[in-house]
Amino acid sequence: xxxxxxxxxxxxxxxxxxxxxxxxxxxxxxxxxxxxxxxxxxxxxxxxxxxxxxxxxxxxxxxxxxxxxxxxxxxxxxxxxxxxxxxxxxxxxxxxxxxxxxxxxxxxxxxxxxxxxxxxxxxxxxxxxxxxxxxxxxxxxxxxxxxxxxxxxxxxxxxxxxxxxxxxxxxxxxxxxxxxxxxxxxxxxxxxxxxxxxxxxxxxxxxxxxxxxxxxxxxxxxxxxxxxxxxxxxxxxxxxxxxxxxxxxxxxxxxxxxxxxxxx
Length: 264
Fold this sequence. Notes:
The protein is an alpha+beta fold. The chain folds into 2 domains: 3-100 and 236-256, no CATH class; 102-234, Pseudouridine synthase (2-Layer Sandwich). Helix content is 23%, strand content 33%. It has helices at residues 17-22, 53-64, 94-98, 134-142, 165-170, 209-219, 245-256; strands spanning 3-5, 36-38, 40-47, 69-71, 80-88, 102-110, 112-114, 123-126, 146-151, 159-160, 163-164, 179-193, 196-203, 224-234, 237-238. Strand 10 and strand 11 (163-164) form a beta hairpin. The protein is globular and about 60 Å long. Residues 1-37 and 260-264 have low confidence and may be disordered.
């Protein structure tokens, strides 16, 4: 058991575990008056580009020497932003945290598609972009609000008979088409210039933003892929209060320099 002290009273990077256990399953968790916790923590970490979510877990485990650590919602290696790290007794809250709505800022390239639907893949198709106005784009985005059906991408961690789809795809195996239903709460254009469309989306757990980008491009009469993705919030956990890994490490060492928590 250990205690982590935090000076920030609201939407802090560290949440009071006891308060969380009593919180209802809503879009936000009220943590206004809490400054410290016992038995575990939830850290709002900024995942950098080119790190897997598990890379962050391993790094935090190494910093804290706490064995029981997990995360509440995967971010692809090419993406960045809010990643919730749960440690100790707070790992019991992972399933609840994963149900919170997520918000993203995305950039997509129109006229080109890749086999992974993002910038890490190989170009598999090019198509002309029809003349598009901001109004046409906005009208198109409206079609994706509410509950929508998404095709699960071949390059994803979803499993088929116990095997990850992306592993089968890399081997060139034939992958059966599967769909899932997700919900888009808000979707709006940020900017559009030449062949670059930036948008923001608030969506449910399990939403593939790269599939959304591809489907938007298709609806616009072309193809597209996701070039950048930043998760800006999970529920009330906002990117403005995320700690970089180095900031977390510095705060942890200052708080726990005299504690032995290696067996937590």
